[in-house]
Amino acid sequence: MEQYSSKVMEHFAHPHNVGEIPDADGVGTVGNPVCGDVMRLYIKVDKDVITDAKFKTFGCGAAIATSSMVTDLVKGKTVGEALKISNAAVAEALGGLPKVKMHCSVLAEEALKSALDDYYKKKGVPSPVKIPASSGHEHEME
Amino acid sequence: MLAVRNVYLDHAATTPAHPKVVEAMLPYFTDKFGNPSNLHDRGREAKNAIEEARAKTAALIGARPEEIFFTSSGAESNNFALKGLAQANSQKGRNIIVSQIEHFSVLHAAKTLEKSGFTVTYLPVDKQGLVDPADAARAINKDTVLVSIMHANNEIGTIEPIKEISAITREKGVLFHTDAVATTGWIPVDVKALGVDALSLSGHQFYGPKGAAALYVRKNVRIKPQIEGGIQEDGRRAGTENVPALVGLGKASEIAAAEIPRRMSHIAALRDRLQKGLVERIDHLVINGHPSSRLPNHLNVSLWYVEGESMLLFLNMEGISVSSGSACTSRSLKASHVLTCIGTDAAVANGTLLMTLGMGNTAEDIDYVIEKLPPIVQRLREMSPLYEDMIKKEKAG
Q1: DSSP alpha helices (H): ranges in B103-149?
Q2: Is there a catalytic annotation at residue B328?
Q3: Among A15, A36, A142, whose Cβ lies nearest the Cβ of B326?
Q4: Residues of A contacting chain B (CB within 8 angstroms)
Q5: Would you call B346 and A63 a contact, using CB atoms and an 8 Å cutoff?
Q6: Residue of B nearest to A58 (CA)
Q7: Measured between CA atoms, how close is B126 to chain A, in angstroms?
Q8: Cβ–Cβ of B346/A57 closer than 8 Å?
Q9: Which residues of B331-369 are buried (b: 16+ CB within 10 A; e: fewer)?
Q10: Close Cβ partners of B351 (under 8 Å, ≥ 6 residues apart)
Q11: Across the interface, do A33 and B386 touch by the CB < 8 Å criterion?
Q12: Sequential pLDDT tens for chain B (397 residues)
């Protein structure tokens, strides 16, 4: 297996934004323990701006690092800007991910989209969020 | 980052070469560099060295020197055994029987045979990883030529009932191969006591060098060469011998033959200390494998609500080397087939650590692991949504 970048190791060893937001405006949980990763992302929104984001993740080094990075990236952004954050942007901000771990960045994008979708639903407005068809787990050959 | 201590608990992956092994090997890279196939003195010197290594390797497993065929790896020995024995005896039948928890070098060789017209029967194992000899007896039919069941499983350490199964294969006139890569050098391995016709072993698994392994094939048993084009290994395996490595394998075998009782008692005591310490300090923990019929150096644990790779990485930061059975550390992103076969819940299989001890480990090493692992697990659990859900469910009653 390819090695992790130093940025990934930094976010894995000292992840940012770990925890829960009890009165979150949006919560999204994605993944499956059978596949080895589950992410739960909480956001707090004030006047269309994401003021806080926290996460809880069960998963490998890359899953924890991408959770940490995606919560960093959304803070201070408007909901509309957050919707545009892609898995590639998360992976790039981490200095790249090993090929077999790219699915972790996809999961981070899905977790964010799922939390934003929840936010719109709680507000009672039609959600513009398109949850990507889970492309996260294309199992390779042994 | 420099850890305070270095604790290597991954001896099932590989072992360091014993200093005496390295010492024995060194002259064969430089002064004694000859090709064993040559008739001149340099060649004879090398030939004598590999024959001495063959005798020592044979002695370790109670075989005759002429029954030992050197190979490059355990995987090669397993491929040689499966394909070579099946192909050489295919006039008798075209069915082979293996267990579901064999190493991939057995399972994939069996798959290749399947594509060339053999049928393969896969025997299940129970929750502790044991093959039931009665299943083997029932599976053998008129078309069966070969049964291959590993001596002990390399992941969960369960030691299989080889004698019971070989009694059946003998009676039915079917060849029996066992993959003894995980056991050779750690517990007594005797081909006659086990009653097997072929057996794979690998040097780097027991303080020998990498690149030196062997397949035992009982006298008068036919096997088809898989590497052709040379007279080496009695015409069974072509290619100039890896003389230094084979000398190392011989030396490792000689050391093991004398040391096995001490290895077993030293390592089993440390393993039991590690198991007890972790069970006492970590809840929601499952020990995998058989409680008593298990390799003395193996501890395989599954921890609920945490993922294996992240534990492995945090342990590594503390200087502790272990393996993980999680989906995330395999390229396939699938949990270990062995854990799946023993019925481990797929969610907890991803939280598996394999710790395999060796002679270099001390009680202080073990206490260090017992001290370091629980806070890592706790930290990861506090980060885990699955743990959060479990706690909430418990509170809700």
Answers
A1: 104-115, 133-139
A2: yes
A3: A36
A4: 1, 9, 12-13, 15, 18, 20, 29, 33-40, 56-64, 100-101, 103, 137, 139-142
A5: no
A6: B384
A7: 21
A8: no
A9: eebbbbbbbbbbebbbbbbbbbbbbbbbbebeeebbebb
A10: B302, B303, B304, B305, B306, B307, B308, B311, B326
A11: yes
A12: 556 789 999 999 999 999 999 999 999 999 999 999 999 999 999 999 999 999 999 999 999 999 999 999 999 999 999 999 999 999 999 999 999 999 999 999 999 999 999 999 999 999 999 999 999 999 999 999 999 999 999 999 999 999 999 999 999 999 999 999 999 999 999 999 999 999 999 999 999 999 999 999 999 999 999 999 999 999 999 999 999 999 999 999 999 999 999 999 999 999 999 999 999 999 999 999 999 999 999 999 999 999 999 999 999 999 999 998 765 555 555 778 999 999 998 889 999 999 999 999 999 999 999 999 999 999 999 999 999 999 999 998 7
The neighbouring-strand residues paired with A55 are A18, A41
Partner-chain contact A40 B310, CB within 8 Å: no
Task: Determine, for residues B334 and A57 on separate chains, whether the beta-carbon distance falls below 8 Å.
Answer: no
The CA radius of gyration of chain B, in Å to the nearest whole number, is 22
Q: Which of B317, B328, B363, B391 is catalytic?
A: B328
